[in-house]
Amino acid sequence: MVKRPSERSEAVVHNRIAILRTERALSRQELADALGVNYQTIGYLERGEYNPSLLLALELAAFFGLPVESLFSRAPFTPLSTLLSGR
Q1: CA 12 from chain center: how many Å?
Q2: What are the C-alpha distances in Å from 48 to residues 25, 35, 41, 42?
Q3: Domain map of the chain by residue range?
Q4: Residue 86 gets which letter from DSSP?
Q5: Cβ(28)–Cβ(37) under 8 Å?
Q6: In 14, 21, 24, 82, which residue has its Cα 20 to 30 A from 64's Cα atom?
Q7: Mapped to the 3 state alphabet, what secondary structure does 32-57 carry?
Q8: What is each CA distance from 30 to 5, 8, 77, 79, 83, in whole angstroms?
Q9: Which CATH number fits domain 11-85: 1.10.260.40, 3.90.1170.50, 3.40.50.970, 1.10.443.10?
């Protein structure tokens, strides 16, 4: 079933931006500067309050050197602790 535009616009997009940013010891400001966006945009993305444009999603993926599907998902990501513990 194809969703109507109004249903898609409210869809949650999960992401791993905070984890990746923290792993690389980057502040929100540093990541924002690298991408040419406001630091508040990074916070909104990390908290799931804002879904990125396709261009921003691709730029984030390129910045982290990962495929876009490693950063963003329509379904919640499995917690890393679960993946590491094998549960």
Answers
A1: 11
A2: 21, 18, 10, 10
A3: 11-85
A4: T
A5: no
A6: 82
A7: HHHHCCCHHHHHHHHCCCCCCCHHHH
A8: 34, 31, 25, 25, 29
A9: 1.10.260.40
Q: Residue-wise pLDDT tens for the chain (87 aa)?
A: 555 555 555 688 999 999 999 999 999 999 999 999 999 999 999 999 999 999 999 999 999 999 999 999 999 988 878 878 876
What pLDDT, on a 0 to 100 scale, did the predictor assign at position 86?
76
User: Residue 83: phi, psi to the nearest 5?
Assistant: -65, -40
Using the structure block, give the residue that is written with the tokens 């890393």: 80
